[in-house]
Each structure stands twice: as C-alpha cells, then as structure tokens.
Write a structure and sequence with these properties.
This protein is α/β, with parallel strands linked by helices. The chain contains 15 helices and 17 strands. A 9-stranded mixed beta sheet has the order 16-15-14-13-7-12-11-8-17. A 6-stranded parallel beta sheet has the order 3-2-1-4-5-6, with helices on both faces. Strands 9-10 form a two-stranded antiparallel ribbon.
Length: 387
C-alpha cells in the first residue's frame, strides 16, 4: 500500500474551498500522507484556481480537468476522490468513481434522494472501497464534549431534545432553491448536519411527524443585495417536526426562514437531572458549567491516542479532521466515523419530514431507509430516471 494517498478534488467551487483549507492545515501541521494530483470542475477556471491554491502549500500543482470520466481515464494514479457537488450530481459522479476503483468522500447529504443514496451504497459495497460522508459538525471539540457529558450521565437520563431555528431570508440561494437540484430546502441541505447530531448525541430516530410549508414562493437578489426581480422557488421554507427516538426520548425540530423581524435559536438536550444548552453549557440540579469549561474538561481527560485520532496533529478544523480520517482509512484500513450508511440514515430523518407531510401521517425512518415511502421523492427520482 502506498504511503501517500493520491487524491483528486471534484467540484471546485463553494465548499471545496473549506476542503482545500482543511488539507492545508493538515499539511502545515506536519500530516502529509496525501498528495492532491487532480482538480476537476465543469468550469475549468474553478479547477485551475483550486489547483493554484493547492500548489501554494503542496508545492507541485495538480493536473486540471473539466470532466470526471476523462480525468479517471487519463490519470491512473488517482486512488481517491473528494466530491463537493450540487446534490443532483452526487450519485452521478460517486457511482462511476467507485466503479473505477476509487475511494470516495462526498459532501453531505449523501444524495438527492434515498434511492440515489442506495445506488452509492451499493456501488461502494461492490467495489469494496471506502465511502465517507463529509459530516463535520459532530467533530468540533464542543460537540465532542457535549457527547461525552451526555454519555457520562451529566444530565441524567435523556428525555428530550429541542432544535429550533427561527428567522427570515429573502435572498435567492441559486440551485438550493429548486427541488430537482437540491432535493429539498434547508432542512435537507443544512439540516442533515442536525440529523447527524440527533443520532450522535441522542440515538436513532424511530419516527417523524412533520408539517412542511412554503410561505415564500419567490426569493430576491443575492445575499449581498436581497432586492430586485422576484425569482420563483419550489422548496419549502418552514418545517415543524416531532421525533420519537429509540427508548422514551422525544425531539422537537423547527426550522423556518419565513419568520420576519424577530428571530431566535435554541438547541438543548434535557435529561432527568438538567439541561445541556448547545449555546450555553451544562446546568443541572448539582452543577453549572460553561460550554468552554466543559470542553476543557473533556479534552483534558483524553489520552494521547484518542486525542490524535480525533484532532490529528492538533488540528481542530473539522473539515481537516474528516479528510485526515478518510485518508488514513484509505491507506491503513481504519474506519470512518460517518461512513455511507451513517450518512444514509441521517438523510432518512430529513426525508421523513417531507414524506410525513406528503402522506399526512407519521412515518418511520425504517420505511424511508427501505424505500417503502417515496411519495415526495417520486418526482425527483423520475426526473433522474431512477423510478
């Protein structure tokens, strides 16, 4: 096995900039078990700019491509690909990369629908290659500390989780506003991070009941200039859900970008003895600890091996951590924390929101994962030829 993983970056706009930074932080910290050998984007200028950015810290410049198939055919030394794409294209590029014998890490969500995600899982299993979902939120020292405190029983027996984001957004967010490109609105795009955290901190979600609304059929302008022509959108802007976890734990998940003038956010886990507020810290009948102090407690009790596994070479950048874990898995056969199946199960929670609304009843995540319920997803699947 090679001592260095030859990696290609595919989709060189947006989030891939954070991946480049994560790789640079690893490189500068002394972790160099990788070499970026290719940058690929349908906009070749973006691929060239990414290659220039890689060359700044790596020294040599990756080759530039405008087509994944051409890159895989031309460059036999590529061992793994890092995909950051419009959701619609996840399975379209992940499957051929896996079939070509490459390890794959893919930005969340795993796919635009559950059926598309299943195609990726099956391709990874058949190819016997590493499949990781770039799910970075759980990797921050603070999230690790919250997980540790809950598992230590610091709030007692877990009873409830509340995840509430209330606010307004008027500007147009390009492809994310369209069901056939994104699969759904923010509760899928960003919400899959939260679904992953629900599973990480509390455990498997068994059932979801949701109301989904699209109060704003138009958006305007850009983030920097939210004025101008009204642009039609067809993803939701509001979801209100209750969740039943394994055991007797309940959850409330509310997300809206259609609430003007007074926004607020609250994320908290409640147990029989107190509360762990994601923005404040731990407060129980016996103690009150800030999140910063709780995080300090957690990091101090880690042994050297666990500290290096979680925070390689001292890197706390969460994207850098997940990329290091992926590289090590490809080279040394170690595991990845958010593999394809974990990403698939997190996505199932998000799609349960939409399917519950479509059916007018609670749905189980098992139904979603087994592709037994695809009313909301049918239109997308048919458009992709997956029905």
């Amino acid at each position: 096995m090679s001592e260095v993983l030859n990696l290609a970056l595919v989709g060189c706009g947006g989030m891939m900039g954070a991946h480049r930074r994560g790789l640079q932080l690893l490189w500068e910290a002394g972790y160099r078990e990788f070499r970026v050998v290719g940058c690929c984007d349908i906009d070749e200028g973006k691929a060239a700019a990414m290659a220039d950015g890689i060359a700044e810290f790596q020294g040599d410049r990756p080759r530039v491509y405008a087509d994944l198939e051409a890159m895989l055919a031309a460059d036999s030394e590529i061992q793994a690909v890092d995909l950051s794409l419009v959701h619609r294209d996840h399975h379209r590029l992940a499957v051929p990369a896996l079939q070509a014998g490459k390890h794959v890490i893919i930005e969340k969500p795993l796919a635009i629908t559950m059926r598309a995600g299943k195609l990726i899982l099956d391709a990874a299993q058949e190819a016997d290659k590493v499949l990781a979902v770039a799910e970075n939120y759980r990797r921050s020292p603070e999230m690790r500390a919250i997980k540790w405190a809950v598992s230590q029983g610091r709030v007692g027996e877990v009873r409830m989780i509340f995840w509430i984001d209330i606010g307004e957004r008027l500007w147009y967010w390009t492809w994310r506003e369209h069901k056939d490109q994104a699969g759904g609105g923010w509760p899928l795009d960003g919400g899959v991070h939260f679904a992953d955290l629900f599973r990480y901190h509390v455990g498997p979600v068994r059932e979801v009941s949701a109301l989904v609304r699209g109060y704003y059929p138009f958006r305007h302008g850009t983030h920097d200039n939210p004025t101008g022509e009204a642009i039609p959108v067809d993803v939701e802007d509001t979801t209100l859900a209750t969740m039943a976890f394994d055991g007797d734990v309940t959850g409330t998940w509310i997300s809206t970008s259609a609430a003007p003038m007074q926004g607020f956010n609250r994320r908290a886990i409640y147990g029989s003895e107190g509360c762990l507020d994601f923005g404040g810290g731990l407060k129980t009948r016996e103690e009150e600890v800030s999140l910063a102090d709780l995080t300090g407690e957690y990091t101090e009790q880690l042994d050297d091996a666990e500290r290096e596994r979680l925070f390689p070479h001292g890197v706390t950048d969460t994207v850098g951590q997940e990329l290091c874990e992926f590289i090590r898995a490809c080279l040394h056969g170690t595991s990845v924390e958010t593999d394809g199946l974990e990403g698939y199960k997190a996505s199932a929670i998000c799609f349960a929101l939409y399917e519950s609304q479509a059916l007018g009843r609670p749905v189980s995540t098992e139904e979603i994962e087994n592709l037994e319920v695809e009313v909301y997803q049918r239109e997308i699947n048919e458009g992709l030829g997956l029905a």
